[in-house]
């Protein structure tokens, strides 16, 4: 894939996510995609597990993620620096900051995503920390 195509794909995925268009996101992913459960910790595999995870996530949080910079790395991965805002469903601000998303691509589709901030133990992202 050309860099311009990858950038268009990434921007389309983020736009669909922000519109809560799950199918719009999943069309850019492989069937066996690996995805971090940022709000829960751990990983899901496959489009239906992502659908279930996002459905749960959006019933608890209102995340908005805007790409700031999209870079192709020498290792073939795509690094996307994003501005992420996470609110509670009642509108309380839980997180407003930058996060790094790292993507593996296969045949023009996303095959895996990891959080650049993630610890090796796969804990939930600080962006989704519950405030009491």
From TrEMBL:
Protein name according to UniProt: Nuclear transport factor 2 family protein
Every SnoaL-like domain range: 11-110
Classification via SUPFAM superfamilies: NTF2-like
Organism of derivation: Terriglobus aquaticus
InterPro entries named in the record: NTF2-like_dom_sf, SnoaL-like
A family per Pfam: SnoaL_2
